Amino acid sequence: xxxxxxxxxxxxxxxxxxxxxxxxxxxxxxxxxxxxxxxxxxxxxxxxxxxxxxxxxxxxxxxxxxxxxxxxxxxxxxxxxxxxxxxxxxxxxxxxxxxxxxxxxxxx
Length: 108
Hints:
alpha+beta, CATH 3.90.470.10, 3 strands, Ribosomal_uL22_CS, structural constituent of ribosome, ribonucleoprotein, Ribosomal_uL22_sf, RNA-binding
């Protein structure tokens, strides 16, 4: 049985979170949580929150044994982009791109 979860519009760019995703790909769920606890980055807190949410859902629904659950597919894709105008000198302006990402996790 496959367990799917997703987080849409996470306030971090997909480029920044992919380095953390590569660390926990093909790991067991509880081992991935232990790995992310010791990484001091914004993306690790987002992923840790998402994995703890999966643990609570599995416990409430009594779906499977937590020790056997393995992350077999995880990805971060580009989400929406908010563009803000940043005014500069001499009448110029630049855009500030605030990037979001969509995170998908599949467990077996």
